[in-house]
Design brief:
By secondary structure, this protein is an alpha/beta fold. Helix content is 31%, strand content 16%. Strand 4, helix 2 and strand 5 form a beta-alpha-beta unit.
Length: 694
């Protein structure tokens, strides 16, 4: 009977601005099936919210539990990853490829700074991939271990952290697989794990020979590389026997070697790879040479064709050129298509259970199953109720984000949500609103890549680093509008937020006007919701009014209308547009049934109720909760926003055409009001009365 390893790896997704390094582009669904280590390219200044780019490198380690009756040996491979908060998106394609081929549990150890941990933890928790565990380690605590080494490589200080794994990883971890995140797996990583059994004697490092002439020193005149054994070895894929390395005093070995070589070389050119090769040059017995197909390198001066020309069963493709997918190689189109296949792969499919290999029960999954089991599947509104418990994969900060809130504590973030059919609104909103923006985008995996290409091709979007794009991946039949709003609200860094919709353009200068209003109305110390009056146009081409006077003129001419006055008057009637026309100071209005204005509130306001999906009552319920919590509604006299025309959404079409949809919405409204009564008691009774009278 053959030994059947059960691999537990820990993935480290990357959080970098997708696009600069193609295989890194895309969303962060990619998991490093061995340990992912992140290399930070730039470091944010103290207290800053900059997200430097990073290039993770995975590491895996194994433990051998007692044999079970049905399996002679069960090996658990634990992977270790390193990530800065911009190193999430790029790992998508590679990590997907690793997980797609796996038939074993994965266990990840990730080194990450605090922001990267937030992003990666959210990704893992919302993906809910069975048989995957994650542990985090603070990257900032490790910087001093390698910061003394000058490094010219774009990976920066993170590119050196592979050297300190024997100190960083728990002492009981015996072996690890280290993988750069710019790789694509074409096989089950358990096959690579099995190679550990081929190590003999003092072999502690498993490496593939470098597939370029870099270390031969003949690439250009006066090229002087670090010392290496022949062509040297590439450290994009490493098998490490940690227990033996510790006994050999690896820490002392690499430090002495680095200190000696730096006296003449002054800095590393290829980060950790230079130091690994210098150590191997002096101690060749440390290496077990892996077959070339475990690290087919597509660098600028690659000789890898000599490998895949002879080996049809490629295992790992490594995009180790700074150009990534744009590297020049006569077979690059084949490899690129392979990578893109994984990139647009439906990540929900990776949630499938692994049969025949036991793993620890996941508490979150068990709780979710318990909640779902309590629902009545014969209920005609079952699908609506089920959506409330659906866990959507979420990739925070999909693109580069960097913003430091204003020091005067008046800053306001515009919050909105959208799907692919509203993408064209982004540039216009960015032109109208210069302040920070938090957006939740509801996309499929393929659409996320389309959005990436769209954003990269837009000068307007690429010039804005204060827009946080948070991808919530599609699942289920309803548009989870309030979940999206909550995701966008939760990830703002300013004290106030403007709760808007993507199809509205704010007036020019609204950002600064709101900041002044925050001070004028003392929002910091009072519970107020500042209302921005909403208008609409039926014209796709509009000469946007640059002042209130111009807007009033357009209202009188019939070019503009108060929002939804001809369809849903109750939604905005309490704003009192007649009073607004002549108002010069803020004025208070009272809540009325079905009121749903667009408001500016403190960031600690209640979340939206997730039971409302698709069309209907999603904002109404939120405004009702603000009212029951005694928020004052204050209309701003010199603020306005204009709704731009678009085709009806799929959800409003369902609402209008499907009687059962409307029945279920009515049922959810009644249940929401009952919940309000239970939570707020007497204060909530007026909403039942108002509903009955409306």
């Amino acid at each position: 009977m053959m030994e059947s390893p059960c691999l537990c790896l820990r993935w480290s997704p990357r959080r970098t601005a997708p696009g600069t390094q193609p295989p890194a582009s895309g969303s962060v669904r990619a998991w490093r099936c061995a340990c992912a280590r992140w290399r930070r390219r730039t470091a944010p200044s103290a207290g800053s919210s900059a997200w430097p780019r990073a290039e993770p490198q995975p590491i895996a380690e194994a433990i051998t539990p007692r044999p079970t009756p049905w399996r002679r040996a069960l090996e658990t491979a634990r992977t270790f990853g390193l990530a800065s908060w911009q190193a999430t998106a790029p790992s998508v394609g590679s990590s997907r490829s690793w997980r797609n081929a796996r038939r074993n549990p994965l266990h990840f150890h990730l080194i990450a700074d605090s922001i990267a941990e937030q992003i990666l933890a959210t990704l893992f928790q919302t993906w809910m991939v069975p048989a995957v565990r994650v542990d985090f380690y603070n990257a900032d605590e490790l910087k001093s271990e390698v910061s003394w080494i000058p490094n010219k490589h774009y990976s920066g200080i993170y590119g050196l952290m592979k050297l300190v794994l024997t100190k960083t990883l728990p002492a009981n971890l015996e072996r690890v697989i280290v993988l750069d995140t710019d790789i694509t797996f074409a096989t089950d990583i358990a096959e690579l794990w099995a190679v550990f059994h081929k190590f003999k004697g003092q072999q502690v490092l498993g490496l593939v020979e470098n597939q370029s002439d870099w270390y031969l020193g003949n690439l250009w005149k006066n090229h002087r590389p670090w010392p290496a054994l022949g062509r040297g070895y590439n450290t994009g894929v490493i098998l490490l026997l940690l227990d033996k390395l510790r006994k050999m005093k690896w820490e002392q070995m690499w430090r002495l070697t680095a200190e000696r070589e730096l006296m003449g070389m002054l800095s590393t050119s290829l980060a950790d790879q230079d130091i690994f090769n210098a150590v191997i040059k002096q101690n060749p017995f440390l290496v077990y040479q892996l077959p070339c197909f475990w690290n087919v390198q597509l660098s600028d001066h690659t000789r890898s064709e000599q490998c895949y020309r002879d080996v049809s069963d490629l295992k790992v493709i490594h995009w180790n050129s700074p150009k990534k997918l744009r590297v020049k190689n006569k077979h690059v189109e084949f490899f690129r298509n392979l990578y893109l296949t994984f990139l647009e792969y439906d990540g929900n499919l990776l949630r499938r259970e692994l049969f025949g290999c036991p793993s620890e029960a996941d508490v979150n999954s068990e709780n979710l199953q318990k909640q779902l089991s309590e629902l009545d599947e014969d209920d005609l509104c079952y699908e609506f109720r089920r959506e409330r418990f659906t866990v959507h994969r979420t990739h925070l900060y999909f693109l580069h984000y960097e913003y430091e809130p204003a020091a005067d504590s008046t800053d306001v973030t515009l919050v909105a949500q959208l799907s692919m059919d509203r993408l064209q609104m982004l540039e216009a909103i960015c032109k109208h609103w210069e302040g920070p923006i938090s957006l939740a985008l509801y996309l499929s995996d393929a659409e996320a890549q389309q959005f990436l290409r769209y954003a990269q091709g837009s000068e307007v979007l690429m010039s804005r680093h204060n827009v946080g794009y948070h991808i919530v991946y599609k699942e289920g039949q309803f548009y989870p509008v309030n979940l999206l709003r909550n995701v966008a609200m939760k990830h703002i860094s300013t004290p106030y937020m403007f709760l808007s919709d993507i199809d509205f353009l704010p007036m020019y200068g609204l950002y600064e006007y709101l900041r002044k209003s925050v001070i004028q109305l003392d929002l910091a110390n009072t519970k107020k919701a500042m209302i921005v009056p909403a208008f609409e146009t039926l014209r796709y081409r509009l000469s946007f009014p640059k002042s209130k006077a111009e807007l009033l003129s357009m209202l009188d001419m019939g070019t503009l209308f108060t929002f939804r006055y001809h369809v849903w008057t109750k939604g905005h009637a309490p704003t009192n547009f007649a009073k607004w026309r002549t108002a010069t100071t803020p004025y208070r209005v009272e809540w009325e049934a079905d009121f749903e204005p667009y408001v500016v509130v403190r960031r600690d306001c209640p979340e939206y109720d997730r039971r409302f999906v698709g069309f209907g009552w999603n904002k109404v319920a939120h405004i009702m909760e603000l009212d029951v919590q005694e928020y004052e509604f204050i209309v701003l006299p010199n603020a306005y926003m204009i709704h731009m025309p678009h085709a009806p959404s799929f959800d409003i079409t369902k609402f209008r055409s499907n009687k059962q949809y409307r029945i279920c919405l009515k049922t959810l409204k009644e249940e929401f009001q009952q919940d309000m009564s239970r939570r707020y008691g007497f204060a909530a009774l007026k909403y039942l009365t108002a509903e009955n009278n409306s």
